[in-house]
Structures
1.
Amino acid sequence: MNGAQTLVATLAGQGVEICFANPGTSEMHFLAALDGAPLRAVPCLFEGVATGAADGWYRMRDHPAATLLHLGPGLANGLANIHNARRASSAMVNIVGEHALSHLKYDPPLASDLEGLARPLSHFLRRSASAVDIAWDTAAAVRAAAAHPGRIATLILPGDTAWAEAPPAALPAFAPTPLKTPDPARIQAIARVLRAGEPAMLILANKATRGRALALAGRVAAAGCRLGSQFFTARIERGAGRTPLERIPYAVDQAIAFLAPIRHLITLETTEPVAFFAYPGKPSQLKAPGTLVHTLAAPDEDSAQALDMLLEALGPSASPPLVQPRLETPPPTGALTPLSIAQALAAAIPEGCIVVDESLTTGRETMGHTMGAKPHDLINNMGGSIGYATPLATGAALAAPGRRVFCLVGDGSAMYTIQSLWTQAREGLDITTLIFANNQYAILKAECANMGAGSPGPQAMNLIDIARPAIEWCAMAKSMGVPAHSVTTAEALHQALANSCREPGPCLIEVKLA
Amino acid sequence: MNGAQTLVATLAGQGVEICFANPGTSEMHFLAALDGAPLRAVPCLFEGVATGAADGWYRMRDHPAATLLHLGPGLANGLANIHNARRASSAMVNIVGEHALSHLKYDPPLASDLEGLARPLSHFLRRSASAVDIAWDTAAAVRAAAAHPGRIATLILPGDTAWAEAPPAALPAFAPTPLKTPDPARIQAIARVLRAGEPAMLILANKATRGRALALAGRVAAAGCRLGSQFFTARIERGAGRTPLERIPYAVDQAIAFLAPIRHLITLETTEPVAFFAYPGKPSQLKAPGTLVHTLAAPDEDSAQALDMLLEALGPSASPPLVQPRLETPPPTGALTPLSIAQALAAAIPEGCIVVDESLTTGRETMGHTMGAKPHDLINNMGGSIGYATPLATGAALAAPGRRVFCLVGDGSAMYTIQSLWTQAREGLDITTLIFANNQYAILKAECANMGAGSPGPQAMNLIDIARPAIEWCAMAKSMGVPAHSVTTAEALHQALANSCREPGPCLIEVKLA
């Protein structure tokens, strides 16, 4: 057995099922070790696809995927989506190939400061010193990553440790780290706040926005507390029959107005809402002055347990839990607008589907219209590095076979990591990608004014308008083996969405905006 | 005047002519400042295009371009091509937008350790502390970058320093840093070595492979010294009438055999040749045991001056300088092979063109056949992070209008930064991209065996073969506004290359390999 074989065996032994890979010469022993091993390897044509897919996998599975990256530049290409995953509390284990130790002193072209590149975004960072260490290092990496909240683990694998002999290691099987229990005194204080009846909102995030925690939050709402979410959430179980959450708006003025009546913000696995960007003369904090912030569950605590304790402290409620009713949306007709797009989605999406939302300007104001659609999961970009949606959808589809993924993405955003389409075709994934083609970085046009930088002049517009040439989305999709067509009306979009659920495999719908 | 306006004015004042940009909300004041400023801004759909294009610009101009990147993830997306530029001694000035200082304490989603991400690959790294500092910081960044050898400068621009008032700064105009003079005693020692007549090779690199230095090297060759280059060189002036350099092979065994007769390696702006990767049981150093290495010009010294001094010390030579004769290559016919591809190039490329080579397995053994073609510049990837060719060609074409760029790239490599095609179409650049479509990471198939990892099994091959689906290159190019067609014979390739020189603007030729 060599080091690479121990690594692969240990990953599999610790419950890692999949590796998103873009290997190079220094990772050849890892590739050889895959043969016959119970670890699925998925090829990616760019490293940002690999790390974004690992994020998507974790969001649906709650256990890390691995990535395989080639030295410093391979890691660097994956960093933006590692940033997004880190902000989403998604776990991943990045295996980064490195030169053999004996070779590094010659400073060959691909050498770089791997620890330096990995450190800013890694919670766990280790360089395996020998083949014998690899199994223990790998198990430590998986354990560190898989704790709650999920973390980024990066393991550097020098070539000589990969190819040297290593004894099989007798490692304990993976056991999840128990969640931390919230402080009962803190819960009692929050119960007193709610009993006092001042306007309060529970803000749910991360693992609190699904499963038992979300259902329990519906009972807290019955006790008179509003339920909210940040504008972006890692994954929300949403739609008819689920506990509905009010979304804090993205725009600073709207968010401030939304939060103005609230006197108490009670947080579950998140912090108080802050503006995404700073704008001249506008505050960073969105809550009204004097609003108190109470932590019901810290990011590493057990939200469901905190909610159990809170409900126990509040005592029985006369009202039933808050539940989202099914709202039938008639299929829209006419022009494609943010509203008709949201209506088409609301009407078309099937039960159990996954919506990955990077629609930015097209979906920002209107995604609320899908609230009463059939039950689905909604996934957002937590780190703000755009281009996350197509790789994330790729990983989510692999993690949740049988559940169609709808990937909503602006044309500007889609171009960052468009290579994802190839992996979607390769693996035959059930993903419907919607490209909102407005031929501009529309968000920047608005942000220029928000920033007090005025209307963009010709040079600035040259960097915002991406219409010359307009990207031909059907040709783009076809080039990577994904069938595609364009729609120009709301009825055509609705029909295309519905049709996409009938055919297995990926497809792309270009939503042509005026 | 605000901080962003000072920044743009100072860049232009220090001789920076162009900025490759992928901006976001935090860079809106920079965009506004561009209007009316003598700084050309070129939009890129991905940051790796911006940094690779800046590298290409420097290779042809010897003065830095700027890039505009959006916070940590924007910088991260540009790092792989910054790595390549750093290894090529290319200068660039990266402007990285950052949150306002007042906003950072709230740890908003896009916040990250910018200095941590930039430090491993930046020679100069500074965060502007106030609007007043920006002009001085910018001038310092350009000065640090533009020294010889070129360096990576990264300037972090917090939003509030961009939008705050700043007085105009009275800065001295840019003046290049004088090159360092080599130590005369060292030169005398090298002259003694050459006079002794033991087998010697001068290895030229960086700025020594062009202009006066290259011509002077031809006279050293006349004194009985072989002339060589590393396998990869930042830019070589090459072809008929230029001083020819023998290329040290890439493969370890071939390189060792090539260097075996040499007793003295004399370096100009480089170090002794080392293997690109370490392989089990093979050496990292390629020179024969006992070979002595002599530094004629260190990377920061003046090669032309060193060669002048050496020629002075050697005295007049009876032989004429070494010059590459023109070798007419008849246009090839028949199957597309590495040889016929090189012959088609040799026959078709016009005088003064630029060849950006990332052909890897397709061109590795055969690029020597273009040695007697019409005079041209040859550019290689110095850092080994693949996907450099399409953005580099983009920057080179902008830097050298009127000179067609031939971008030779494997299909696997091309997919890393394929968004370059869009910028090529946008700017109407005279670039002929050749995609060598073998539908695999062919280099890895060979490297698996070289690494002693045996023949790739089915799981390993799954990560090497990219044929399912095969990328449709004509559709890919068309999707981004670049006309394209496929060729399957050597005569069709030759014709397509020749045709591409007649039509202005970009085109793509898919070279279909069996």
2.
Amino acid sequence: MKAVGQVRKRGPLSRTAIAELLDTSRASVTSIVGNLMEMNVLTEVGHGKSDGGRRPRLLDINAGLGFIAGVDIGATSVDLALADFRGEILERRSDVADVRTAPDQLLNTINDMVSEMLNQHGADDSHLLGIGMGVPGPVHFPTGVLIRPPLMPAWEGFPIKDFLRDRFPNARPVVDNDVNIMALGEASVGGGVGLDNFFYIKIGTGIGCGIIVDGEIYRGSDGCAGDVGHICVDYNGPICHCGNAGCLEFMAAGPAMAEKARLAAKNGEGKLLAKALKDKDGQLTSVDVGEAAAAGDQAANKIIEESGRMIGGVLAGLVNFYNPKAIFIGGGVSNIGHQFLSTIRQATLRRATALSTRSLQIDYSKLGSDAGVHGAIWLAIENTFALA
Amino acid sequence: MKAVGQVRKRGPLSRTAIAELLDTSRASVTSIVGNLMEMNVLTEVGHGKSDGGRRPRLLDINAGLGFIAGVDIGATSVDLALADFRGEILERRSDVADVRTAPDQLLNTINDMVSEMLNQHGADDSHLLGIGMGVPGPVHFPTGVLIRPPLMPAWEGFPIKDFLRDRFPNARPVVDNDVNIMALGEASVGGGVGLDNFFYIKIGTGIGCGIIVDGEIYRGSDGCAGDVGHICVDYNGPICHCGNAGCLEFMAAGPAMAEKARLAAKNGEGKLLAKALKDKDGQLTSVDVGEAAAAGDQAANKIIEESGRMIGGVLAGLVNFYNPKAIFIGGGVSNIGHQFLSTIRQATLRRATALSTRSLQIDYSKLGSDAGVHGAIWLAIENTFALA
């Protein structure tokens, strides 16, 4: 399936190009491609440029091979998409969801939505050939089972893949941590296209990181790489729910910003924050902080700067260590405006070494809230071909 | 050259095994192997186990193909070795060296030593086929040129590879950062054999890190990955020579330990340290601190614990991020005894997440001061085959 992998990564290729990329003979590739075309995996899609002789026929993945579903489960919502085998999204859905509900219940709701999307395209459950799912918790990747997930304890050990297979008998399921699939989405169709190594940082209720090495998700030796939310920013800081002092996410993520805003409003430090608190019945979020800051509320600005500085300080250390080409920032808190990004950039560049930031790009995710579904689709496509 | 790569990594292999590993036909491998044997790159070294039929002939790299030199330049010393193409060290040298001297002068001394070793084995300069060199500073790997090296400013931009080629016309030279080659040494013949991903941390005058991903050196997008010495451990700490406050190496490496020991001795806090200071004419090193601590000096113990805790704190963050299988610690300060290692371990395990430390091994380097030369040899062998 190496020929398919090359086509997937590089787009339409000639047989000669595939032979060169795989360092094998043209004759051998012709035979492999013949088999893959018989299986309807590859298809000819026109002609490439001539090298002097006849223009070569180009091969691409057969978009009509079947359907792929991508599912991105968040703490309070679920995003879904139905796609073809080239990763083109055919239909997109979003819904509220509560991950604290029993897994079979939420998964049934999701499966029903996937079935509906299939039906819309004249297909039924049997036509789904791959399903990729991102979940907000630590995943044992080979089995697709959640391990001690703090946000969704009822899912611990639940056989998600078996459950999906029962409904979609021809679909190969794959389950991964939500941040990993977002990073893969960014790598496949977002700002990370063509970059060998970068991070995707999700800042929301928690802070997590997806790491791309050589264009692939890096999972580490136990599958939990990227757990940056519990890196210490203050050894004398408040005690996080994990039991340690001064964890980054406990001090800088969405809930910390909201709580600081609530206190500032109560203490009369932020007039716009106080107004927002009143308008929203005592419930503030990081987005309210962003709006107040944009409107000139000093207390709100200070909250954003504090979070940005802490996050940038940790990123600076990771940049020194890992020397990535780019950092993309996503998650709910990335919607609070440009000042937050700007503070993160400044803090990262101030503390990281000059060498490691020479060509470093720090930006919000290009895909926004679509990163997860795109990544889930691509993970499912990769998984289908890797094991086919 | 993929067949050679497999043999180098896995030891003697049969043609069938090579065909399976490369996912290609037995016939194609037989033809490739025939060519490599004619070129004297591969040689038959006996028979493997039978699978039922005839016992297969095993192929290994031809140790007699030529000579490889490995050079590890430290701030105050140089380690060299002459090896064969299987990485077996034939001869080993060490000498004092000062990297502040002009590059051509030091390199000439090194080249003379390499020539002497070749002569000892009945060979001359023309028989050297590869030379790998580690240098204590940031290297632009493709060109092998040092970029703003703080310890050896006179080497900035010096064409090391050209200089080596002038002396050894048949040797393919390769130059890398010293910590990278130590990590590669550990991966090739040390504690990292068979581990997909680990760090090698060198603690000496500075603190640096070599990162292994999938068994290879990870260099990052600008070639400066692993620069952990300037990760911040205290935003209110003293100003490092890099201009930032509270850098790890400025607060925890050898010179910081020696300076704390000197102060403790002067202030009458450590009797054994005071005695050492007197015995050594006012010059203490981290090794003196280790000896005083082992003999029960409380001030010395405190110095070791402070450094260990700071280093472990930073490692904990990197473990959360990267989830390595192991961390190996080398460099001069790793010679100060077990208490230092023990403190680093405790601090790392206390702060890192439970998931990421499930199977984490933290140990001193298995190769000690030989890690660099072994790595330089393996880098040279890889480099010779990759481009041959």
3.
Amino acid sequence: MESATKTVTIAAAKQFVSRCITAAGALPAHSDQMAETLIMADHRGHYSHGMNRLEMYVNDLKQSIADGHIKPAILKESAATAHVDGRNGLGPVVGKFCMDLAIKKAKESGVGWVVAKGSNHYGIAGYYALQASSQGLVGFSFTNSSRIVRVNRSSFYGLGTNPIACAAPGVDGDTFVLDMATSAVSFGKAEVNARKGIPIPDGWGADKEGKVTNDPQAVLDGGGMLPLGGSEETSGYKGYGLAMMVEVLCGILGGSNYSMNIRKWGTTGETADLGQCFIAVNPAMFGDGFEDRMQDLMDSHRNLAPADPEKPVLVAGDPARIHMKKCEELGGIPYPARVIEYMNGVGKSLEVPPM
Amino acid sequence: MESATKTVTIAAAKQFVSRCITAAGALPAHSDQMAETLIMADHRGHYSHGMNRLEMYVNDLKQSIADGHIKPAILKESAATAHVDGRNGLGPVVGKFCMDLAIKKAKESGVGWVVAKGSNHYGIAGYYALQASSQGLVGFSFTNSSRIVRVNRSSFYGLGTNPIACAAPGVDGDTFVLDMATSAVSFGKAEVNARKGIPIPDGWGADKEGKVTNDPQAVLDGGGMLPLGGSEETSGYKGYGLAMMVEVLCGILGGSNYSMNIRKWGTTGETADLGQCFIAVNPAMFGDGFEDRMQDLMDSHRNLAPADPEKPVLVAGDPARIHMKKCEELGGIPYPARVIEYMNGVGKSLEVPPM
């Protein structure tokens, strides 16, 4: 049974996460960046990639398998590109650095294309795409990840949930924000269901024999996710192909670990050495009037008559917008009380005061 | 019942298509480019985007709604970007021009990002991505298209099958080639099934009320495709989001028609004014050893034990490779005899000798 909900202000949630990360061994500036990305995830309603992941980051730092002090290094650079070594820094620190660089290049050269190796889990991919769109650019972000998606025609798991994020600005702050795992759903969603004890629908994941299952725990215990599209007949090979395309953009371009040589999910025996890709494009280099067209594209979809009047037609990013509005009304981010209790426990072990 | 198969040499098939396009009013060089792309589709086994589409291109030319003489114009240009007006030229002519430009920019600046407006249907998206990969680059190509994909939560059709193509070179000519509609399947596949009288599986398409159907004709008669992922519960909103991302890259960046203002499928009452995006990236700007990693990524997947020994694990591009090998053994491309008969009829009306 789900217990009651507790609302935590955004400032308090960020402060708590930042303190935990600092207590685990990172520089305060790095901890603040981690808190920014994790709490943005919760604020946008992507709870699977928010505070829910705090303990994983804490463990990486406590076991010195990620470095909370290092500054990423540019290995190669041109007007439009950069190859970055994240030097095993925290993912959000590496990601922010790379997208800042891509934005600078896009403003000067039309495109900024930055690929990092030596990174760690960077939270929601959308965070970095939004960095670009908030500057009037179109932003993309991709990361590889521990293998957890079943390869089509095999019971093996070859690729991560390798997300694709794209953000594009409309008018007056309205934004298209696609932020999706290339698996049917993200691993984090199965984690959340498992934590809440709720079964998962057909087509989300498979057990360790590769059979479709409704038990989220079977997915976590040696099973894995299905690629977007599900079975081969319903084009699961497209999700599998998209996941591999993301790997091309990340590990293969970047020269990091990739696919089957990335460490197993949740383990801290070796560094992650993830590959990540950050692209910013300046729409001013193409057809005039980008933002107006973007707004019209979004609005023309939102204004379609819904099949079910209770469920308005949405555009990518709208569910997050709705969730942020709810947070505004509540005066903070709603969490299940048991999650807060659990997180305060993580904090206690680090001598961090509760939220 | 499907009739017997006829094999046509690649040269004869190209010559026939080129003659038909020329007879319909295009310059021979434009007709040759159209033939290159259509017959590459058939050669790779993407029959839905090959000669099967000949009549549509012929009609566009005969009704002077597409221009078989025009040269695309560069409207804006930087070291890494170009905005191109296709000037209503044939899609393959515009596409080849744009990707050639992107390749040149990628070799000089690391990235070439070219967006066209004023284009027409350009055949398989993979053709252009392969242009880049054959030069040692990573290539991407995207196009918008007539709306035929059901918008999630609505019975309206707001976006096209908006494909994503990505090609990346491995070693010795081996190549990763993702070439996929962001709908569950391409519209062309429903066309082929309708022509052959074969029902379609659940999750491919919907009838005009927006209900899932197994009748390909109902999909063609005012119905439409479902986005990749199918229903909302199995993440169809991701396919819908990807289709919109492609529209951002094409019509919204390019300033062409987009989404609901693109002419209806198969009509020739107004120009198509499609938007298309072509990206080439030079892997030499990032981690050394790209091609070796790419090969290892592909081979490590192909070498996984298959769940069904009859069905080896494949990588995007392998089905095309298998089909091309079959063509090599046959000495040409196999077509159903009734398709050849139909196409020769199209040729006859243009006074083009049969294949």
